[in-house]
Design a protein that fits this description.
2 copies of one chain form a homodimer. Chain A has 173 residues and is of the alpha+beta class. Chain A has a single domain, classed as 3-Layer(aba) Sandwich (NADH Oxidase). Chain A has helices spanning 3-10, 24-35, 54-63, 89-111, 125-135; strands at residues 46-51, 75-81, 115-120, 142-150, 168-170. In chain A, strands 1-2-4-3 form a 4-stranded antiparallel β-sheet, with helices on both faces. In chain A, helix 2 packs across helix 4 (89-111) and helix 3 runs antiparallel to helix 5 (125-135). The radius of gyration of chain A is 17 Å and the shape is globular. The two termini of chain A are 29 Å apart. Strand 1 (46-51) of chain A pairs parallel with strand 5 of chain B, so a sheet runs across the interface.
């Protein structure tokens, strides 16, 4: 097995962090990995808000029902969709494109030794609105998720194996 | 830079293949990487159709307007959403979850030396219907995309750098 596959299979959601701050160059590299994702017709209908101020992390942890771990994370990345980036493709495909970028972010964080977890914002209207106000996000930009990233407290967690042969079909359903 | 980041940054869409068949164990490993993606509340609202019969690849290449490369690919994976997998989360998040799985598939293919490209099906109604009929997909299952995978004809293509500093905001928009 190669290293990338090892990392894909060993990545899992991590919600307990030491509280250590993440270096700016690491968080920028992680966002850069997000931007390397494919997008429909290469429109790149995305933007990224890096949160590394403690008060902002705490505010977001209070606003979002399943994001309490942000209190102890070293940073967070809000992956935002830009559906009006072009006339056709961005609006149809921004969720898919931003989700591919989010998966790159999770893998990049894991490869650098950090733990991360994707907490959903879109399509929950209240969460979208609360995050928009907290981070001054324009109305044409949609926060898809808030990804918490931190130094994991427990480095020995074993990911569950999610392989299910019944989810595979050959040539026809 | 670590190997995973190298692979994330060197991955790009590849549409020209030699026509060689992909080994079953490789394509299964690639699908397994897809299943290692995160999903909302770990519902795993997905299923995967592996296409490796030449006639099926050719039929799909004719049905889909931007998937002519399937004629020469060694295989394809149709990533399908299962929105009724549970009562709440699958329906809201299947597009995000299946897109994360699709990105894992693209990266896994790249790490094994194959080239791949994500061709969209959902939300185009005609494409969904055509793929559904060709592959006998039930009405409650939605084909999100068809990912073509093959041995690349040209191994020396350089990916474009998609990093844009203007897409990054710090702590607030």
């Amino acid at each position: 097995m190669n290293t990338l596959l090892d990392l894909i299979f060993s990545r899992h959601s991590i919600r307990d962090y030491t509280g250590e701050i993440i270096k700016n160059e690491d968080i920028e590299l992680i966002v850069k990995a997000g931007m390397a994702a494919p997008s429909a017709v290469n429109v790149q209908p995305w933007a990224f808000i890096i949160i590394n101020k403690k008060d902002k992390l705490i505010n977001l942890s209070k606003l979002l029902p399943y994001a309490k771990m942000l209190e102890q994370s070293g940073a967070a990345i809000i992956v935002c969709g830009v559906p009006d980036k072009d006339m056709h493709f961005a609006n149809k495909y921004w969720i898919q494109d931003c989700s591919a970028a989010s998966e790159n972010i999770l893998l990049a964080a894991h490869s650098l030794g950090y733990g991360a977890v994707w907490t959903a914002v879109y399509p929950e209207e209240k969460r979208i609105n609360d995050v928009r106000i907290e981070c001054n996000i324009p109305n044409n930009i949609i926060p898809l998720n808030v990804i918490a990233i931190g130094v994991p407290k427990n480095k020995n967690m074993i990911p569950i194996d999610k392989y299910k042969i019944e989810n595979i079909h050959w040539n026809t359903w």
